[in-house]
Amino acid sequence: MAQSPQLRLRRLRRTGPLREMVRETRAHVSDLVYPLFAVPGRGVKREIPSMPGQMHLSSDLLAREAESIADLGIPAVLLFGQPEMKDETGSAAWDERGVVQSAVREIKRTVPDMVVITDVCLCQYTDHGQCGVVVDGCVDNDRTVDLLAHTALSHAAAGADIVAPSDMMDGRVGAIRSRLDENGFKDTIIMAYAAKYASAFFGPFREAADSSPRLGDRCSYQLDPSNVRQALREVETDIQEGADIVMVKPALAYLDVIAEVRRRFLSPVAAYNVSGEYAMVKAAAEKGWLDEARCAMEVLTAIKRAGADIIITYHAREAAGWLKSGAVT
Fold first, then answer.
1. Is 196 a catalytic residue?
2. pTM of the full predicted structure?
3. Looking at 196, 287, 304, 324, which residue is catalytic?
4. How far apart, in Å, are the Cα atoms of 127 and each of 139, 175, 315, 321?
5. Quick check: is 3 in a domain?
């Protein structure tokens, strides 16, 4: 008869309370940021087909949504805009009466303590869908950087707490920091999309933001999914230029990158649980192939375990409810 083991690691997993006592990683509602999509008009609410449960909302309804989100304990929202008109330079991006600027003002009037983050990019505003000004078929880095700084300043002037450049142009963080400081916005935080990959997981978002490139792709400025060292150079550069928070996007397919960024740098690390990652869970849950709550919370816990301090996720509202109710343990 085999000798019974003295070391029984299963002892600590025997009951729910025991597992809770020794749990190493906890996703908390205060970690979460909820993305929202601003559109022109009043009283506008449209579901985004490829992202079940996510809506296009006009600024008045965004303010009500932010109030509801705050009641759940979610501390922050990330705003994207879909303008009425697009042009080759994306000029609606820095319009002081633009969709994002209007949404920031309404949210801040309604929920003053809500942390409002704004996405700073031109892809949603250009008629060609690229993230900057196109010259001779290529995105012109330096001309784009100037417009991004102008856009970030307009967001800060509207009341944004954090501006988040997502374009992946070289030098944009330094330019934005200088423009903000020169105009009296020294306390406005920059959360840089520092390691943003040219990912297929962005598909549903591009429908939501109407931002698919009409010409070419974004591989010349977004990161190659095969590379980690290059991502670390991008993160280091953004920190040197003044980024207060650095982001890895997407999250689930790049947990190793999140872990390496966390290991090497002291700055707060954000990770974006992107639209494709969300849509996969939603689609499988709708077919009854998996338990949505358990699967989504497992994903969020994995992102937290990898080292993210901040998790941007379309599951934030539902996750807050599951955490509050104890539905997922």
1. yes
2. 0.93
3. 196
4. 13, 24, 30, 39
5. no
